[in-house]
Amino acid sequence: MAVKLTKNEQKKQKDALKQFNRYLPTLQLKKQQLQICIRQIEAQVEEYRRQQRKLIDSLDSWIAVYGENPLLGDRSILSLVSIDTIVKGRGNIAGVEIPVFEDLTFKDVPYSLYDYPLWVDKGIVALKDCCRYDAMIKTLQEQMDLLGKELRTTSQRVNLFEKVKIPEAKENIRRISIYLGDQDTSAVVRGKIAKRKLVKEM
Questions:
Q1: 17-25 long-range Cβ contacts below 8 angstroms, 24+ apart
Q2: In CATH terms, is domain 7-184 a member of 1.10.510.10?
Q3: For site-directed labelling of 127, which of 17, 38, 78, 197 has its Cα 20 to 30 A away?
Q4: Which of the four pLDDT bands, split at 50, 70 and 90, describes residue 71?
Q5: % of the chain with per-residue pLDDT over 70
Q6: Would the pTM count as exceeding 0.85?
Q7: Reduced to 3 states, what is the DSSP secondary structure of residue 5?
Q8: Sign of dihedral through CA atoms 167, 12, 28, 1?
């Protein structure tokens, strides 16, 4: 884009450069904050997955017993666990509104104590815990998606300022300064020539 080679344009470019230089550190800080938050959430997701795997591994023994119990027939323990609602609040990280997991509620599914062995109660609690981990992980992944989108936008802005706007403003200021300097030099030279002519004519 062509710029006017004037003092007003020079001032405009200097003001723009000052604004870019003032705004850039804020964007860089936001970018760092988003990166740190995303890494923390990734670590939390991994921790929840580890705890969930540990829980599932601890249930292997009764799962085997459940599978071998001919009295249960085709009745599945999964039918005894039914999610009602996932309760989420709202949070804010670096200006980004995110969902925050608060609670997971289950429908009350009645079952006959005569139809199921005693350890089914433990199994139901474990399945509910597994569901809770799934809901927490899903919420954290939603957070990462939203923060990742904001990080991409912020990174693009940082790059725009660092690689385009600031160098462009500096180059425009340099070109205008050179042009105005040349104009001043020409004016001085013309003035001296005019003065010499006047002196000769006297």
A1: 17/166, 17/169, 17/170, 17/173, 20/161, 20/165, 20/166, 20/169, 21/166, 23/161, 24/158, 24/161, 24/162, 24/166
A2: no
A3: 38
A4: very low
A5: 83
A6: no
A7: coil
A8: negative
